[in-house]
Amino acid sequence: METDHSPISMMNPTVTTPDALPSFDLPVVNNDPPERADAARNRRRILAAAEKLFAENGVSCTSMDAIAAEAGVGKGTLFRRFGDRASLARSLLSERDSGFQEAFIRGEPPLGPGAPAAERLVAFGEGMLDLLEKHGDLLLVAEGGDPAAQQRSDAWASYHLHVRTLVADAAPDLDEEVCAGMLLAALSARTFFYQRRGRGMELERLKAAWGALVRRLLF
Predict the structure, then answer these.
(1) Is the pTM value of this prediction over 0.85?
(2) Whole-angstrom Cα distance, residue 76 to residue 68?
(3) Domains of the chain by range and CATH?
(4) CB 217 within 8 Å of CB 179
(5) Which of 39, 152, 198, 216 could form a disulfide with 35 if both were Cys (CB 3.0 to 4.6 A apart)?
(6) Tens of pLDDT, residues 132-161
């Protein structure tokens, strides 16, 4: 039976994998219940203030107190809504995450459907590296001090499911769940910062190494 590479519907987000695998449900980013008008207004003000201060001062140099003052809300409101700076950073990243998910779910190949699974995985890693290059500071804060925090996010869950499905398609003999986690670890913000800033590696070198790794693993 041939593998189905058709687009995944976000309205009915179920991924159909090869016969040897079960079907998985794809988490949908920004699928929260409707907010009250005042809560939605505060949320927009907080996110706008955070984006402004992060751009002006850097993510690591912006305190939650400063964000609350800029947004004109109490610190209690800020912390009840977002909890900590990592949660706030993840909320700011949700729009970028959604755009990237749209690209690998329904976009043009090789990132989107229509290309072989291994080539889609290469394109996925290249796209993640581009995201890290553009929004690495936010992504690093979003990972937070809790090593499992990022893995509990809807965005990470969708990335893991996508990579897991591609691995299962390209190499059914591998443990797709474990391999997906290992591959995504190579695309973490901490790994990227160490290689890109700590060791001064060029972005194109990282992309080339990712492509070589995936092709060696899956071909």
Answers:
(1) no
(2) 9
(3) 37-82 (1.10.10.60), 85-218 (1.10.357)
(4) yes
(5) 39
(6) 998 878 877 777 666 666 666 778 889 999
